[in-house]
User: What shape does this take?
Amino acid sequence: MLDIDKIQKDFCQCTNPYEGNVITYFDSAATTLKPKQVVDAVNNYYLAECANVHRGIHTLSEVSTSRFEATRDKLQKLINTNKREEIIFTKGATEALNLVASSYASTFLKEGDEILITEMEHHSNIVPWQIACEKTGATLKAVPVTPEGELDMQAFEQLLTDKTKIMSVVYVSNALGTINPVQEMITKAHAKGAITVIDACQAPAHLALDVQELNCDFMAFSGHKMFGPTGTGVLYGKEDLLNKMPPYQGGGDMIDHVTIEKTTYNVLPHKFEAGTPNIAGVIGLGAAIDYINELGLDEIKAYEDDLLAYATERMSEVPDLTIVGTAKNKASVISFVMKDLHPHDIATLANKYHIALRTGHHCAQPLMKRLNVPATARASLSIYNSKADVDKLVDALKKMVELFS
Assistant: This one.
């Protein structure tokens, strides 16, 4: 098991008071806290090794380029891509999904084609496909969700047809924590001739990923949800598909040769990385991957599974509290509602007890509509949370019940 005391010391916010109080952080599904190792890597770039990448032959540029590209190598190993060139840096999962929707879908889809998503998707895995459908005449369809917060797999098989050209599905729900059977879905989508896109934002900090085993065609995730800096993201794509796609943006570094009449494009991955990237952020992401590898994803998952079970049991003690999303296979997210208390009031009162919760529709309005709730309160757990943190939350929730009883 993980050494929680040591881990909490790595995350300064877990131990350092803010305005006189240590805040217990339960909002990791929105963004994780950052260990000092990541902050140190970012600071070292800006304070000692700042230079642009890929373009200079002086020492600082070569050092920065080496550290920047080392993160690509680490990502290749982390998710087991066939080639390092299949890793594209973006500013986040949102941009990665938009890249596929804009470059692939808008190029290869036509009227009568279908894109299949689910009602569980984050808005960033809905809106780009809607835009692609408007451009191409394709149709967007969505797999419904059961009252327990699982995908209706019977409906999935009915919706998946020969007209389905793209299937894009979330691996782990940010709103409910549901872990979807994406490998089964990928296999069935490929059998229909569809390409597959996986929104894995909530996965890399919680469980192991293997894109070759999954056999997905694209995968997107964000650095800031896996202890890395904000403004960093990753798109994995199979080499043959990426080579067929037109560039997403034009500018420096994505070119081979430019004339006024015509431009030829650079090889992968640079073809999709126009302009100066978030160098410090990518270097920081490399440090975050090192941190995850040091702890071990199997150990992380085991610790968080135990913590989730404990939190679920403890929260069941709170009168008039209902957990929303009770899938059998879940990651460390608990969404809930309380009788006579709006979720925003729950979060406001929790803040009085120095607890950070997230409330609202969690950028998943279709899911909230399906579950017939306008919003939920959400406690999302991570490696720096402890059972004592859970006890603090439960005590606060019980006090809220007493206050309004």
In short: The chain has two domains: 4-26+296-404, 40-293. The chain has 15 helices and 15 strands.
